[in-house]
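[Meeting: bench + compute handoff]

Bench side (C.D.) handed over the final construct sequence. Compute side (W.E.) agreed to return the predicted structure before the next meeting so the bench team could plan truncations. Sequence as handed over:
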Amino acid sequence: MNVIDNSKVHAEDINLGLLLTALAGDKDAPLVFYYDGRRVKPGYHITEVKAGQFSGLDCGANPEAWTEIFIQLLDIEEGDRTHLPAGRFYSIIRKVTEHVQLDGSAKLTFEVSDGVGPMQLYCAAMPVSRAGAVHVELSPRPASCKPRDRWLAEENKRAAACCGPPVAGSGCCA
């Protein structure tokens, strides 16, 4: 039985390697995360970085395996702290790699809480540099049906490859 690698299923997710590469050029710029329509408070900090290897069966009885990295953000305001500089975030992640093996191509998930509400899971978009800061939009990580996601991805590829009207019965275009 072959195991399906789901690390490429959601194209909008970035991985840790892409995030660190994007931050490398803006090390002095404040790193500002956005989630649920608001930005994190200037006192936020990284409370935990962890890596996990997962395996299981999806709803189609397909074996699944993936590696995932979780970065936990505590969204609080503390004194006169400012947003963490991108270089400091980069250094924290590099420090973690001295103790925990982090695969730069692994699925990246942010866990965010204000310390009162429950922790929520988010995926990250590609960082954008503007107005002297690095901005990273976090969007809720929805549940998904992996067999359906793969089928939709294949359908989208087929549709993109088509250049004419559909050919009856072939599932493709002329």
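W.E. noted at the follow-up: The longest helix spans residues 146-161. C.D. will use this when planning the next construct.
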